[in-house]
Amino acid sequence: MPFVHKTIEKYGKTSFMWVGPRPRLLIMDPELMKTVMSKYNTFRKNFKVTNNIVQTLISGILNQEGEEWSKSRKTQNPSFQLEKIKQMIPAFQLSCDEIVNEWKNMVSSSKDGSCVVEVMSHIEVLTIKVVSQTLFATDYAQDKRIYQILKELTSIARQTTRIVDLPGAKSSVPYC
């Protein structure tokens, strides 16, 4: 997002910008960010998800406030300690090596020694591999079909949220 980068370069590590009608605070200082993330009573979320379907689907720490947020954060915090993350590095390394080798094979098998790679799909698979191995101790290859179905369901849900959230719908007849 080059406009965010330009804003930070021009106005500094703590600045704000407008995204449509909404102001966005940009904080690049790690200590200030730590303060904001840990003092939930002082710094509250100033946004609400207005789409009814998205409100129903999204739960967890992203949608929580106050004590509920603090409790969830304390529960999840041990999973993100440095020692736990260090244990995941071999899985990250293995998956990254596999993708790099796949790209090398694609380049070496091409006629002119170059090729076009649709990187996003490879990064998607990399993420799924690492998550399935580190969090669930399963192999992506075995559960590939499940991930494909989840991707399709996500796409359908995304399309549905765009269709149903009509301007003025909250003030008219409720959804059934």
UniProtKB/TrEMBL annotation:
SUPFAM superfamilies the UniProt entry points to: Cytochrome P450
Gene Ontology CC annotation, any one: membrane
UniProt keyword annotation of Glycosyltransferase present: no
Classification via Gene3D superfamilies: Cytochrome P450 (1.10.630.10)
A molecular function GO annotation: heme binding
Domain of life: Eukaryota
Record key words, sorted: Heme, Iron, Membrane, Metal-binding, Monooxygenase, Oxidoreductase, Transmembrane, Transmembrane helix
Subcellular compartments: Membrane
Cross-referenced PANTHER family: CYTOCHROME P450 72A11-RELATED, CYTOCHROME P450 FAMILY MEMBER
Family in the record: Belongs to the cytochrome P450 family.
Protein name: Cytochrome P450
Organism per entry: Fraxinus pennsylvanica
Upper classification of the organism: Eukaryota, Viridiplantae, Streptophyta, Embryophyta, Tracheophyta
